[in-house]
Design brief:
The chain is mostly helical. The protein has two domains: 46 residues; 139 residues, no CATH class. It has eight helices and four strands; from the N terminus they run αββααααααββα. The longest helix is centred in the N-terminal third of the chain and has 27 residues. The N terminus is likely disordered.
Length: 226
């Protein structure tokens, strides 16, 4: 009985409830901080998860895009690139690069990685090699279509989809270095020759590079990035 009476006489306690407002605030505030830290931790872990093997990891690391191959595109750098440096490299200059098994997937992965590294020579070398090997078949596939293939048939047009991605990568890179004519040229090839290409976004859907390219051409022509 004495213990019960002592418990009742203690300040801030009544029937097992905390009545001290300062103590209540401290506990609630501490819980809120813990919950926020837990959410941030989960978010950080999610970002470290490996992407699908068909994509480069990063797609520009300076917060231009969140995930590789994502459908937002990239913004241009602040510096103009010297025009004399922007050339397509021939066989001799490409000898130092590892093309792996030269499959569609391998060459496109290497193209994304080069874009992520902002390596202009590598972007041109890997996309050009992919185009040399697979563009003819991609054009044949494109000629059969009058609309986008549905989900069940998208994988039947891999040459079309990967070559469309390569021209998109070239356009994105030239836009990034503010070589506007070459960016428009790459986008235009995509729009005119591979309009029904689709590419998998790691966030869970196929996007349409040619539609983005049309918008980028419009923005460049209107001086949006200048």
């Amino acid at each position: 009985m004495a213990k019960i009476q002592m418990a009742k006489s203690l300040p801030g306690r009544q029937a097992g409830k905390i009545q001290n407002p300062i103590l209540s605030f401290i506990i609630c505030h501490s819980f809120a901080i813990w919950a926020l830290s837990f959410v941030i931790c989960l978010s950080g872990c999610a970002k470290k998860s490996p992407y699908d093997a068909g994509f480069a990891k990063g797609y520009f690391k300076d917060r231009v895009a969140l995930v590789p191959g994502a459908s937002e595109g990239v913004g241009p750098t602040l510096e103009e690139a010297p025009a004399e440096k922007i050339i397509d490299l021939g066989r001799r200059e490409a000898k130092g690069y590892d093309f792996g098994d030269e499959s569609l997937k391998t060459l496109t992965i290497k193209s994304w990685e080069a874009l992520n590294d902002k390596d202009e020579n590598a972007v041109l070398v890997f996309t050009q090699r992919c185009i040399e090997l697979y563009a003819d078949e991609a054009k044949k596939q494109s000629a059969k279509l009058s609309d986008y293939p549905d989900g069940a048939n998208i994988d039947s047009y891999q040459q079309l989809n990967y070559i469309g991605a390569c021209y998109f990568i070239r356009g994105e890179f030239f836009k990034y270095i503010k070589d506007w004519p070459k960016a428009i040229q790459a986008y235009q090839v995509l729009v005119e020759n591979f309009p029904f290409a689709q590419y998998w976004d790691p966030r869970g859907w196929y996007y349409k590079p040619a539609e983005i390219a049309k918008e980028e051409i419009r923005k460049i022509n209107e001086g949006y990035y200048k």
